[in-house]
Amino acid sequence: AKKVRIPHLQEMKRRGEPWPMLTTYDMYTAELFDEAGIPVLLVGDSAANNVFGYETSLPVTVDELLPLVRAVTRATKRALVVADLPFGSYQLSPEQALATAVRFMKEGRAHAVKLEGGRRFAPHVEALTGAGVPVMGHIGFTPQSEHNLGGYRVQGRGEAGAELVADALALQEAGAFAVVMEMVPAEVAKQVTHELTIPTIGIGAGPDCDAQVLVWQDMAGLRRGKAPRFVKRYADLAGALSGAATAFADEVRRGEFPASEHAFH
Ligand code: KIV
Ligand code: NA
């Protein structure tokens, strides 16, 4: 199958065909999602919570994320692989953003990078796109700013809706090829999607975005506990894996595994 390229994403927007994006952080899931026809895979800094066990996305580092990006790009044939720039690796200056993005492109072999923030990050986006690095924006609720935003809260309600539109337009103007909108009212997301020529990718942003993204462990029910409202679980991987581990343990304890056919004679 042909590699997914940025113009394909723009064409899907023009045709009104919604497309899916998933996070992935390792070889097996990257291979499976690629084969399932997910056109864009995101190695999110959500690896902080979903791989490394941090409570927020803030602690994860470039050095922790790079090997995950490399594993995903090695395992992917068709999908466009986007690497998230972690907290502290791009905010200082457009120069810092470019230096970090170059590492993800060279060492991680990513096809694009993503960073959080609106208008104030237009110079950072411009520095990257000017150097040949495709950039995906991320506005609305931005987890790297959760302490400043007062926790996980819907962004862009009321007056703030116009700010969100301005942020999205600024990112597009700076050369971003797509914009993630996280936890914003569906009506605002619809308006942004209408005003932009580049695709919008929603998470908790209603049905009118050009694309939809979920964290894969949420999508497949590996993460347990109460899920946010915007999550839909399409499988019960936690149940399946816990059942498998329990069955294995029981059979070993009962002396049933390995059976004769699992042994060399
Ligand atoms: O890190 C992440 O998983 C993300 C997506 C939710 C967009 O940024
Ligand atoms: Na992220």
Automatic annotation (TrEMBL):
UniProt pathway: Cofactor biosynthesis; (R)-pantothenate biosynthesis; (R)-pantoate from 3-methyl-2-oxobutanoate: step 1/2
Annotated cofactor note: Binds 1 Mg(2+) ion per subunit.
Source domain of life: Bacteria
Residues that coordinate or bind 3-methyl-2-oxobutanoate: 45-46, 84, 114
Single GO molecular function: 3-methyl-2-oxobutanoate hydroxymethyltransferase activity
Active-site feature positions: 182 (proton acceptor)
Keywords, comma-separated and alphabetical: Cytoplasm, Magnesium, Metal-binding, Methyltransferase, Pantothenate biosynthesis, Transferase
GO cellular component entries: cytoplasm
Enzyme class, broadest EC rank: transferase
Localization per record: Cytoplasm
Listed CDD domains: KPHMT-like
Binding site for Mg(2+): 45, 84, 116
NCBIfam families: panB, PRK00311.1
Subunit: Homodecamer; pentamer of dimers.
Similarity comment text for this entry: Belongs to the PanB family.
PANTHER family: 3-METHYL-2-OXOBUTANOATE HYDROXYMETHYLTRANSFERASE
Protein name: 3-methyl-2-oxobutanoate hydroxymethyltransferase
